[in-house]
Amino acid sequence: MKMRTLLAAAVATAFVGFVGAGEAAAQTEVVTTTAAPASNAIAYAGAAIGAGIALIGAGLGIGKIGSSAVESIARQPEASGDIRGAMILAAALIEGVALIALVVSLLTVLK
């Protein structure tokens, strides 16, 4: 149950970073046309913080998945194939969300 909770927290953290970066992108577009360049720095900082939070959350989630998988394989070696497959699938999904968050943040900065 703890692993599911931690996985859900990691995905939620990555999603918050993704949404925060998207909001920063929307704000950058509006701010660029009406305000001084100093407000662009705030959007850039928001994008950097959003990407950082998303990547930290993904790293923690993947680390927890890996440690739990190794512990599970140590307890039940005959189920190692199933555990390894589930671990790789979950890690790939988390990494995909982190990559999307990073790309959105970079697009915000480079736009």
Q: Can you give the helix content as a percent range?
A: over 70%
Gap between N and C termini: 42 Å
Q: Which structural class do you get from the secondary structure elements?
A: mainly alpha
Q: How many independent structural domains?
A: 1
Query: What's the order of the H and E elements?
Result: HHH
CATH architecture: Up-down Bundle
Low-pLDDT sequence parts: none
* DSSP E strands, number: 0
Q: How is the main sheet built?
A: none
Number of helices: 3
Mean pLDDT: 79
Strand percentage? under 5%
> And the CATH topology?
F1FO ATP Synthase
CA-based shape: elongated
What Rg is obtained from the alpha carbons, in whole angstroms?
A: 18 Å
CATH superfamily: F1F0 ATP synthase subunit C
Output the CATH class name: Mainly Alpha
Plain-language structure description:
With 111 residues, this protein is an all-alpha fold. The protein has one domain (2-110): F1FO ATP Synthase. 92% of the residues lie in helices and 0% in strands. The chain is built from three helices and no strands. The protein has helices spanning 2-34, 38-75, 80-110. The radius of gyration is 18 Å and the shape is elongated. The termini are far apart. The model has no long low-confidence stretch (mean pLDDT 79).
